[in-house]
Amino acid sequence: MTENAATEPKRSIWLRIWEFPLTAMLFAILVVILCAGLVGVVQMQLLVPNLEPSVGMIVSTVLLVALLTAAYKLVIRHLGGKKHDDLPLAGLARESGLGFAGGAALISVCVALAALFGVYRIQGGDNFADWAQIIFVFGLYAGFFEELLMRGIVFRWFEEMTGTWIALAVSSLLFGFGHAWNDNATVVSSMAIAIEAGILLGAAYILTRSLWLAIGLHAGWNVVQALWDVPVSGNPTSGPIAATLEGPALLAGGGFGLEATIFALVVATSAGIWMLVKASKAGKIVRPMWSRKGEPITAY
């Protein structure tokens, strides 16, 4: 036992239960569900009957992000034994912008490799009819909502319990198989997302101890993927160009898109491992609670 631990006042059993990582995680998830449910009611009762579908989509997405941001600042960041703000205003523009550019570059490298191997071909222009879905659903919603839930809540409090490596494995698998119900999804595509995106986005959070880089990476990858007319996790869209993605499943994704190919596995996973190495050298790795022996978390 450390000197600090020995001199700390004894906390009540109820406070210890309330601040336990699993309790904090479950309560935070409940807050997210309540926010999503409230926006869903507003969408069905007010937006759908009164607005055009694309406008309603934009309004509901922005409303959800705003409500979740408020809930995070007012409630979620104060949960658990170690208080921490994963959405600091200071890093919003720089880290999210850098992440968006990085995500755009990574998926563009995958597209270039697919073109080099002859499975991706641009056919011409398209009408960009799904611009609202591409920007606000695949970009803003997926980037913010999914990262807040998977990295800002699930990974964060699993890490406090089990340490960085187990938390990274668990959150990655949950994230990957959370896409198992998408169109054209297979066990292979779910495992691919678990490995490439789970490691990449988890590493971004571990390195920065903020969600902004992960949010930017996620949004940039999705938006630019759709702009290249590649299905986003199995969801085809109509963007500014028309292209085909045909060939062996290992190279073309079998209808799910490039996320289920060797290209994404190599490119995204390599970037994630690079960030993990940097995070490890910077002392950002958390040990499991059973090996800390009362010592505080020092990774952030």
Commentary on this structure:
The chain crosses the membrane at residues 20-42, 54-76, 97-119, 131-150, 162-181, 187-206, 211-228, 248-277. With 300 residues, the chain is mainly alpha-helical. The chain has a domain at 89-292. It contains 12 helices and 2 strands. It has helices spanning 3-7, 13-19, 21-50, 53-74, 92-116, 131-162, 164-177, 187-208, 212-227, 249-252, 262-281, 289-292, and strands at 120-125, 241-245. Strands 1-2 form a two-stranded antiparallel sheet. Helix 3 (21-50) runs antiparallel to helix 6. The longest helix has 32 residues, at 131-162. The two termini are 21 Å apart. The model is unreliable at 1-7 (pLDDT under 50).
Core attributes:
transmembrane helix; single chain; endopeptidase activity; 12 helices; 4% strand; 300 residues; two-stranded antiparallel sheet; mainly alpha
